Protein 1
Amino acid sequence: MDYYLVIPIHNEAAYLESNLSSIIKQTLLPKKVILVNDNSYDGSETIINKYCTENPIFQKLTIVSSTDHMPGRKVINAFNKGQALLDDNFDFIGKLDADIILPENYFEVIAMHFKNNTSIGICGGFIYEKNNSGDWVLNHPMDKDHVRGAIKTYSKSCFKAIGGLKNVMGWDTVDELLARFHGYIIQTDTSLKVKHLRPTGKAYNTKAKKLQGKAMYTMRYGFTITCIASLKMAWKNQSIKSFWNNMVGFLQASKNKTDYIVTEEEGIFIRRFRWRNISQKIKA
């Protein structure tokens, strides 16, 4: 199967070489990898140029957005600009972070899943991070049928059905909700262990961490589901502050009549899906 990759890059010099090296070692190589250098000033461009010179599958795109390493808008803006350089001659497409190391068979296994089941819309492995003892341990704060934003791959038909990636915080949740809305399933594979070199959230500032509630509003969660989801997040983070940040973000978005990122019909599906999951967990 043929596939493309797009990698947004902002000051990733400490990790980028390891990342690109793991792509070159794949048992199933991509047709093309777009390396989107978004306002880097740390030496990332030197590494990008090296790989583009040494291997024709790499192509550089330089853009200038904000200097902030914000989730959502900056990353997906970079992805969308890179994706615009690609044609439609692919079976699946991937969005990768630049601070991960892939196992050598990663995309061979991903391709097998897509090939064997056309109902799969989104596929991926699991993220592992080093703990204080130096051991690689699973870091997966959501349900096991969720693919982390750092390692997303989409079948061509699913990617087109959901309209690509939304340029907002929460993009890596709404993509899976919309995939399900269109009848696709999410496939994860526990054998695919991806090393994440920078602990989750370390690059994001306080402002970024206060946008979750706004994202839940724009996905039409409604007040009650947002409250439940925020309580769950606060419990996992052991921080009541994250609950209040979420709810303030939701209420401010409601007051400002912030635009939704899903249709009313999609919103109905999303709320029903969330309530079904909540009900199942209560019964369990």
Protein 2
Amino acid sequence: MALRGLIKRRAFMAALHSWRGLKACFEHEEAFRVEVWLSVILLPLAFVVADNGIELVLLCGSVLLVLIVELLNSAVEAAIDRISLEHHALSGRAKDLGSAAVLVAMLFVLLTWLAILLM
């Protein structure tokens, strides 16, 4: 009994922290807000465009991947800014690498959607 209650509490707290993270990213990161609004359009559209389950997973997964990478990029940026706001080459490199990861994820969306729409 006690273990079940502990698991429920931990799951609740994990969900609460996740919700806070999503809310903070939406409030503080313009890029994330734009990507969320694009997701609101693309995710329902994926159900119309996809001919089968694999296409649906690829279309939705590619869009969700951008949100995941943007969340991680925002976390890296926040941690770096917490350490110091002064310019440092390694801080700049870390932020650039996070930004590059978002770009690659966006290119994956473009490639996935074009491949499915054009083939």
Protein 3
Amino acid sequence: MNAKDLKVVVKEKYGSIAKQSLSNDKIKSSCCGTSGCCEKIEFSMIGDDYNTVEGYNPDADLGLGCGLPTQFANLKTGDCVLDLGSGAGNDCFVARAIVGETGKIVGLDFTDMMVAKAIENNRKLGFMNVEFVQGDIEEMPFSDNDFDVIVSNCVLNLVPNKHKAFAEMIRVLKPGGHFCVSDVVTKGELPETLRSDAEMYVGCVSGAITRDQYINIIHDNGFENVAIHKLKPIPIPYKVLSKYMSEEEINDFKKGETGIFSITVSGYKSL
């Protein structure tokens, strides 16, 4: 599947999740949201608990995250913040609680219906300094040096060209600005049968690269003071692993020789 086809898959699946949310249907909490999306993988990669976080809005939480990037993003009052893959606006509203009325929050999402859901949520909250834009992370519709901070939650692994994504991030950040993202990475070589499944791709697994590759891409695009704040394994049930792996591969997975992890990482653009 080429990059264009993968983007179509992502847009269709996340559009379906947003459509269910807009019609007030129940959303299954998992990295890929709905049970239809996760039909083949049958497990959840639930992110950190937002319930006690200031600014949290349950209506904007579709269960699509794998971390809590705002916890480590060093946001300050008055910051201009960009959320990549903003979904229904969950992390945007948390960031808004930190930056206050003098700050600005912009959410960028690939899916029209997700943007519509986020705008609806923001209308209910009445924030005048929060906006949502439809666009591609690989070609962001923003000028150079626009933002103080970029956050993202379980999205960049879905972007086919991660080099372009991080190149765009450093372009739109102000000098001295920084990013903090939560994402999915791997350790060791996952079986091709797992990686090639489009449903697994939308489920935040097949699009993932190794932790070392991920960190190298960040460095290659000019970011400095790169730091990993959190790294935790994502457990997968045996009945799921057995669909994609041999017994030997499953044993290696359980020993930690291969695996799937949630990572929260930050980096700075030079002054």
